[in-house]
Amino acid sequence: MTAVSATPDVNASAVPTAQRRQHRSGFWAAAFAFLIVMAVATLPSPLYGLYRTRDHLSALTITVVFAIFAASTIAVLQRDSSIAARIGRRGTMLGAVATMMVAVGVLAAWKDLPGLLIGRLITGVAVGLAAGTAITYLIELRLRADPKASPVRARTIGTSVTVGALGVGPLIAGCLAQWVPLPLTVPYLVFIALGAIALTGLWAAPETGAPATEKKPAGSRRKVRLPVPAAAATLAAFSANGLFAGLSGLFLATTLHYPSHALAGAALFILFACGVVSQLVTLQASRVLALGMVSMLAGLALLVVSVRLSTPNLAIFLIAGALIGAGFWSCLQGDHRDRAWGKPARKPRRDDVEPAHRALRRTRGPRDRSRSRARPRCERTQHRARVRHPRRAGRGRLGLGTAGTPAGPFVTGSRDEMPSDRSERVAIVAGAGGGLDRAAAEALAGFGPPGPRCRLAGPRLT
Predict the structure, then answer these.
(1) Local confidence band at 91 (pLDDT 50, 70, 90 cut-offs)
(2) Alpha-helical runs (H) found in 132-227
(3) Which domain holds residue 233?
(4) Are residues 75 and 147 both part of a single domain?
């Protein structure tokens, strides 16, 4: 349910100091509003047992209720960018909170199956509006409040709010349904009050971008290719998470013989709380996906064991939910990294560096046939020759790698201009190499063994 947003291009240095305090308070107001809207997404989960008893609902009807919510959320997420472009990010968040209040009002007032269906349909619209805009809005507010801040923290807060809110909603609803009268009314009234507070905070929050006045071409949206392993892992993770979230209350009431609504809400809270913890993992995307799949499969195995024992075990059931939640959000985190930042970085290889003679040929144009034919030489010898005998090196240039990074230095000048002191020579080499470390600079200057940055081949010097 998390929408992935690119880091916005914000000119934070242009924001006056007097307005940064307003952006800082607006950041937390937007985070609170996002929390409330996302909590309503899973708010009725521990209450479906009461709905089943009151309206005599079947398992198929409950499945239809889930499907209607998911379909409306996906439909709005497809248009979130155009909606935000028309009314701004602050306007979109205000609309999301207002729509959420209408949805819970319908669920609280309409005591029938059509009211449940329409209420969940409107809830999906509110969640789609918030999920597609909130994280980008938080990043922009963060950068305007602190020009030197990193957008990674704002993105992490937004993702944690998304996951944590999905667990807070069922916990609040389950506790209220267990110990407060009118269990199908009071939880919704509480969130109407919280929504009013969120609206007040958002009304004072600043807008980070003016609505667009010109329509963008239809094909301007960037296309993203999702790797097959990440897509398969994400699909399996959604299936496992939906299985536990949709059937945990039924398992607790029938198989485990714990009909407590508070326990049903606590089980879902554990599911999503472990997802918040998994957001702190900073490994490579491939490893995150692998660990997520292992955790999810172990959770599913324990879930089967917990309900198939001669005496069903509640502790194993809750541990299974924790592993499924951690695995689910780990898979989404790895998928997010694959789509937003590409494949994980690997160690540089020899083929990644463009040889010096190719770089010189490309920058100088056609080679002069009257000169002697260029022949490759030993890499280390080539480096030492260019550093120790700069007059022979001729016109110096930097060889470039595939990413535009310096592959090695070509020091220019005459032999008399090169200092004889070791430290000064190493400093010149390090500066010519675009900020090499001392070990690499000493290797290039001829005072140490060749390091990983010494992989540069060039023409034979004549």
Answers:
(1) very high
(2) 134-145, 151-179, 186-204
(3) 226-344
(4) yes
